[in-house]
Amino acid sequence: MALIDEDAAAEVIGGMKAARNAAHELVEEQLERGKTRLRSTSKTNKSRRTRKRIMDAATKLIIERRSVLFQMSEVSDLCGMSKGSLYYYFRDRDELIAAIFDESVDELVSQTESVAAHAPSARAALRGLFGEFAKRLKEGSVLSLAMTHELAGSPDIADSDVASRLARVAEVIAAQIERAKAEGVVRPDVDSTAAAIFALGGFLATSLSTAHGNAATDTDQLVSQLMEMTMSGVGTAGASLD
Q1: Which of 126, 106, 113 is nearest to 166 (CA)?
Q2: Hey, how many other C-beta atoms are within 10 angstroms of the C-beta on 175?
């Protein structure tokens, strides 16, 4: 019978203990990292909720007054928080306004992309896009004010990025005009980008009119008018105007 080498056995046992300790330390480290991530995620979610609460309160004031003339103290009162806490999330009123305007245009971009992606035809997509604009550009809406301030070059939205977001909307419209060419309802020689800018310009003009209370209040009527003006400029002779 072979004799057991006590030194070798001790070395093996020692190695097993070291491996076990290392594995235990690794598990503890992973658990701690998980807790840290959870705390960080929880803190981030809370911060987002608080920012959203502040923006919703300011949006309420903007819609009620149909202007961005509000005081930060009014927002803090609506939120039930101190002005100091409010300034932790937004350094001043202009930054808060810019965040609200950006969010309103982001929602428009997201919805136009969704409409375009699910429309059965280019005509349906364009009508749906016009409908989204008509619905969102109602008098005193945040989107209407955002566009009006963008066109006016207002310093209130110096931190906003409304222009680049609207450029994305123009890209969506241009893509649908290209799609309409393939469907035979838009002339092949039409410059899709120029046509999209033309259509978007109509939306922007509508927002200015809306801000001054001069826009048509009938959404369906406005959609039909915008659709007719666009298709009259780029449509083929056989394109019907529903």
Answers
A1: 106
A2: 16
Q: Is 5 exposed, middle or buried (0-12, 13-18, 19+ CB in 10 A)?
A: exposed
Handedness of CA 119, 122, 124, 129 (dihedral sign): positive
Q: Give the integer Cα–Cα distance in Å for 96 and 56.
A: 10
Distance of CA 146 to the CA centre of its chain: 13
C-beta atoms surrounding 50 within 10 Å: 16
Block mean pLDDT (10 aa), the chain, length 242: 56 64 66 59 71 92 86 92 90 90 88 91 89 74 75 60 82 92 90 87 66 55 73 66 55
Which residues on adjacent β-strands are paired with residue 186?
235
C-alpha distances in Å from residue 189, one per residue of 170, 186, 193, 194, 195: 19, 9, 12, 12, 11
Instruction: Determine the Cα–Cα distance for residues 147 and 196; give it in Å rounded to an integer.
Output: 17
DSSP states of 36-76: HHHHHHHHHHHHHHHHHHHHHHHHHHHHHHTSS---HHHHH
pTM above 0.85, yes or no: no
The residue assigned the tokens 């101190």 is: 82
For residue 136, give the nearest of 98, 108, 176, 99 by alpha carbon.
108
Which long-range contacts (C-beta less than 8 Å, at least 24 apart) are formed by 26-32?
none
Judge contact between 39 and 45, C-beta under 8 A: no
Q: At residue 186, what are phi and psi to the nearest 5 degrees?
A: -135, 140
